[in-house]
Amino acid sequence: MDYRSILYQKEGGVAMITLNRPRALNALNIEMIEELLEAVRQAAEDKEVKVLLLTGAGRAFCFGAEISEFTKPQEHPAQDSAGGLLLKSQKIIRWLSGLPKPTIAALNGFATGLGLDLALACDLRIAAERANLGEAFVSMGLVPDGGGTFFLPRLVGLAKAAEMIFTGEPLTSSEAERIDLINRVVPNQELVKYAQALADKLAKGPSLAIGLAKQAIWRNLSENLESALNFEAQSQKTCLESADHREAVKAFLERRDPLFQGK
């Protein structure tokens, strides 16, 4: 599919999606929401893709939703109303968090509002030094609608999540790293290189095991210990019977790096 608001490229088991409206700070308009949803679906269904990397062009990752498009009269009101767009953007969040493949957000700049929620729905977040992160919904008299009230308390604790959501004040990348909102801060010019290296490392790993581990992490957020242990046992049985496990054992005995195939 040809995209106009995003870039999609695949190399070495990594699908890289770049939000590509730099003049608008990659604010999510109708076209970008629809294209991003299709691109995430494309990565999910492509068996060659082992890792999804999401970033932005220019000086922003994503400045949130483009409010003007959510409020103006639309050509197709049933599809393009604020409610319809909300459902589509939430579908992206569901795809990212539910994708049985690791996802990485490379935050090259501003990540605010729905843009921050996109990053929070990813498994790992790497930020450039210049990045700023904030739940800016309150400045427009709105509440987070991309999972912010779900992700933030689990990542940074209830009090800090409430502060971020109630005030809308942005965090610097260093402060976000300090409270474990992001995994790593890297120099601006090294962000893409670092994120791609991490994605390549994961893509070369045992994708079956990584995918099952991701499913366990998300599933067990709302389960008790007994249920979590049972799911882990089932997942481990699958891994023990996999070709990847046999290859790992063989490589260990032969003192070489394993070549995983994801099965």
Tell me what you see in this structure.
This protein is an alpha/beta fold. The chain folds into two domains: 6-203, 2-enoyl-CoA Hydratase, Chain A, domain 1; 207-253, Lyase 2-enoyl-coa Hydratase, Chain  A, domain 2. It is built from twelve helices and ten strands. It has helices spanning 30-45, 67-71, 77-80, 82-98, 114-120, 148-156, 158-167, 173-178, 191-203, 207-219, 225-240, 243-253; strands at residues 6-11, 14-19, 51-56, 60-62, 103-107, 110-112, 124-128, 132-134, 171-172, 184-186. The strands form two sheets. A six-stranded mixed beta sheet has the order 1-2-3-5-7-10, with helices on both faces. It has a four-stranded mixed beta sheet with strand order 4-6-8-9. α1 runs parallel beside α4 (82-98), α6 (148-156) crosses α7 (158-167) and α10 (207-219) runs antiparallel to α11. The radius of gyration is 19 Å and the shape is globular. The relative contact order is 0.11.
Features:
12 helices, 2 domains, 6-stranded mixed sheet, globular, 4-stranded mixed sheet, Lyase 2-enoyl-coa Hydratase, Chain  A, domain 2, 10 strands, alpha/beta, 263 residues, 2-enoyl-CoA Hydratase, Chain A, domain 1
